[in-house]
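This part of the workshop introduces the protein records we will be handling. A learned vocabulary of local backbone shapes supplies the integers on the structure line. Getting from the letters to the tokens is the skill we practise here. As an example, a complete record with its sequence and its structure tokens follows.
=====
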Amino acid sequence: MKQLIQNTIFSKSGLDTVALRFGAGAIFFAHGAQKLFGWFEGYGLEGTGGWMESIGITPEILMATMVSSAEFFGGLFLMLGLLVRPTSIILAITMLVAIFSVHINNGLFMSNNGYEFALSLLIISISLAFRGAGSLSVDKLVTKKLGA
């Protein structure tokens, strides 16, 4: 079990991921909060679920809860540097679904509701999944405590 935990949270030392984790984490957190709680002028679960149903994603409340939770808690975990690799994989999958279910037909640019922004978050998520959390993270503290 100890080895599984170490393999999951192992992170190379370095400060290079701090800006990526905090920047992307804050964005994911805020978008998740809009969808989950209606914060930051969002629509909350009911509004998000209704929109998802309108584009053919059902069951709408379940799917809205899953996406909102992934973004909200995933963003929080990225900022803390907690379980960064598995969190990044979940967020990358979320961005792939967003790109192909919402944005792909609108082209690249955000001005047309394209996939430009989701692609950027996808790339950051993939990078963090490979790299890990870095030195200033809960993952690094846990790894040290486990003696790795």
